[in-house]
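Have a think about this chain, C-alpha cells included, and walk me through the fold.
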Amino acid sequence: MRTSHSTLPALEQRVSDVMRKSARWSILELAFWALAIVSWFLFPNQHLILTEIVGFAILALSIDLILGYAGIVSLGQAAMYGVGAYASGLFSIHVTGEPLTGLIVGALSGAVVAFLTSFLLLRGGDLTRLMVTLGVAAVFAEIANQASWLTGGADGLQGITIEPLFGVFDFDIYGHTGYAYSLAVLFVLFLLARLIVSSPFGYSLKAIRDNPLRASAVGVPVNARLVAIYTLSGAYAGIAGALFTQTQQFISLDALSFQKSADGLMVLVIGGTGYLYGGLIGALVYELIQDGLSSLTPQYWQFWLGMLLVAFVLIGRDRPRQLVRSITAHLTTIRGNLVRDRASTRRAP
C-alpha cells in the first residue's frame, strides 16, 4: 500500500505532462492558421468559395467530435445543421439581423435538437445509430417541407437580411466580410474543441471510443459523456448552418438533406478523423477537387469524384494524418537539436 501511495504522485505528474504536451501548439499548427489569415489577402477573388470551405470545415469538425473522439457514427448531422440555419434565418427576419446573435440562436437550436435526440443513441450499436440519425434528419426535412408557411418549403426561406458586423462591416456580394467572419468563427470553435479534447473530458471520450465497457468499469459516466459531446456537436453543426444562412442570405431544404451529412463524412474520409485538422484539411481538398472536376467535366464530375474517393479510401485514407504527424515530429526534432546546440554553445568556455 505504501508503494502505491509513493507512485501516485509520479503517475499524476506523468499524466499532467502528457496533457500539457498535447495542449501545446506545434509550429505546423501556427503555420496553418497563419496561412489561413494570409489567404484573405492573397485570394480576394476567391473569398466566396473560401467561405464555403470554412462552412464545410465547421460541419466536418462537428462530426469529428462525435466520430473521431467518441466513436458515434451519424448520418443525421444535417438535422442540426438545417435547424440552425432555419432558426438563424427566421430570427433575422422576425427579430433582428445582428449576425452574432443569430449565430448564438443557431448554436442553441442545434444543441437542443442534438440533446433531445441523443438519448436515442444510447442503445444499440453503430448500425442502430446510423439508422436513428438518418431517420431524425429525414423527419426534420419533411417537417420543413410541409411547413412552407414558415420555412418557404421548396422555394426556400427568402427575405433574410443581415445587419453589418459590429455595425460597421457590411456583408458584400464578394464575400470579403463573410470570409473573415467565418474564419474567425472557425478559429474560436477550433480553439474550444482543442481545449476540450486535450482535457480529462476529452481523454474520457477516447476511452469510451476504444472500449466503452472498460471505460464504464473504471468509473467514466459513459452515457452522460456521450450526451454531452453529441449536444456540443449539434451546437457546432447549428453554427455551421447559421453561418451559411448569414453569408448566403438564403436557405433551402438542401440544408436538411442526406447529401449534407454525406458531404461532411466525405470531408472526414479525405482528411481523417480523431485529430481535428482532418475536417479542415478535408474540406479544403474536397472543395478544390469538386470545383476542379466540375470545371473540367461539367457532366461527369460526380462520377470522377466518387472514383477518387473510393481510391483514396482504399489506398491512403490515413495518409494526411500520418503526413501531419511526420512533419510535426520532424520539426520537433529540429527544434530540439537547435535548443541543445545553443545550450552546449553557452556552456563552452
